Amino acid sequence: MLKINIISIFPEYLKPLELSLLGKAQEKGLIEINIHDLRKHTDDVHHSVDDTPYGGGAGMVMSPQPWGLAIDEVSESSEHFDLIVLTPAGKKFDQKMAKNFASKNNLIFACGRYEGIDARVSQYYASKSNFTVHEVSIGDYVLGGGEVATMVIVEATARLIPGVLGNPDSLKEESHTLTNKDGSLVEYPSYTKPANWRGLDVPAILLSGNHGEIEKWRIKEAERRTQALTEE
Ligand code: 6GU
């Protein structure tokens, strides 16, 4: 079973992970998600988790001590852990990374805020033989913190675990996994009833019953959409 531990100063921010698909996956015992408050690991009266940057500059940096205590607490066993540090300076998240994470047993998400987490936290855990550290970004824009990025990654990862999706066939044909000789394609357009809606017809080929021709049309449409995304 995949065990996911998430450390954040805003644990309530991650509540949506209890809903819908991921909530059901937890009820079914397919995944386990535990959310932890970083401030539990502070000892000063103000429960501070950040400080000014060495070398000067704007903003605040998250202190290494609470992070070390929080990560140690969720990794007490002798198992292997994949520590995912959310940062806009990380490697771009994609479907391939989701598949890799879905094959793991223990994921720890460190949700940074402010100007990020003291760099020694990644350095320290990367040096431990039972840890792999991944610094990950979800795209080329800046968020207020890693919480939303964590939800994106957890959702994309969990749905790849056998049994999480109601219909396992959904995994076979979808965007970014439907491939031709040139690599990966986005999904073809989908239609359902009614056959005419506000004067717009469903493409006639889809009503033809000719599965060979339908498959060819879908591949052509997926290629057209993929091409359109790489233009402009
Ligand atoms: Cl992982 N964190 C933050 N703060 N901003 C981001 C991001 C992560 N990914 C894209 N932008």
Explain how this protein is built.
With 232 residues, this protein is of the alpha/beta class. It folds into 2 domains: 2-159, Alpha/beta knot (3-Layer(aba) Sandwich), CATH 3.40.1280.10; 173-230, tRNA(m1g37)methyltransferase, domain 2 (Trp Operon Repressor, Chain A), CATH 1.10.1270. Helices cover 30% and strands 22% of the residues. The chain is built from 7 helices and 11 strands. It has a 5-stranded parallel sheet with strand order 2-1-6-5-7, sandwiched between helices. Helix 3 links the parallel strand 5 and strand 6. Helix 3 (95-102) crosses helix 5 (147-158). It is elongated. 25% of the residues are buried. The structure holds 6-chloroguanine (6GU). Homodimer. Belongs to the RNA methyltransferase TrmD family. Keywords: Cytoplasm, Methyltransferase, S-adenosyl-L-methionine, Transferase, tRNA processing. Its main location: cytoplasm.
CATH topology of the largest domain: Alpha/beta knot
- Largest sheet, strands/sense/barrel: 5 strands, parallel
How many distinct helices?
7
N-end to C-end Cα span: 44 Å
Computed CA radius of gyration, to the nearest angstrom:
22 Å
Arithmetic mean of pLDDT? 94
